[in-house]
UniProtKB/TrEMBL annotation:
It comes from the Bacteria. The lineage of its organism: Bacteria, Pseudomonadati, Pseudomonadota, Betaproteobacteria, Neisseriales. This is ACT domain-containing protein. It comes from Simonsiella muelleri ATCC 29453. Residues 33-108 form the ACT domain. Gene3D superfamilies: 3.30.70.260. PROSITE patterns: ACT.
């Protein structure tokens, strides 16, 4: 018996289900957080933003934290991103890893 037949033959067993919104965020996008650790340099934030935009990602928010490590200036970015799905998030992470002087990119 298929689902359609089950509904026809047993209407008393039907329950109301709320699947929620199809999207986790605005316009069918989900929010995901990514942490990027990189050696600080001129134009770094612009390069990261471009890498995200190249694959149709959207930055909902960004936080920066400067760090001093091994006498080199490092900076940490916490991005709140709007992504289509998990594959889209992985693609964004791959593009971020290609930016010069990136030490680490992880989903948080």
């Amino acid at each position: 018996m298929g689902v359609e037949n089950g509904v026809k033959t047993n209407p008393e067993q039907q329950i109301e289900v709320d699947w929620g919104s199809v999207s986790g965020s605005l316009n069918g996008y989900y929010e995901a957080s990514v942490r990027v650790l990189a050696q600080d340099g001129h134009g770094l934030l612009a390069a990261l933003s471009s890498a995200i935009a190249e694959v149709d990602g959207n930055i909902a928010a960004v936080e920066t934290i400067s760090k001093a490590e091994n006498e080199h200036g490092f900076i940490e970015f916490l991005f709140a991103l709007d992504v289509k799905d998990l594959a889209h998030l992985k693609l964004i992470i791959q593009h971020l890893q290609r930016v010069a002087n990136i030490r680490e990119v992880v989903r948080v």
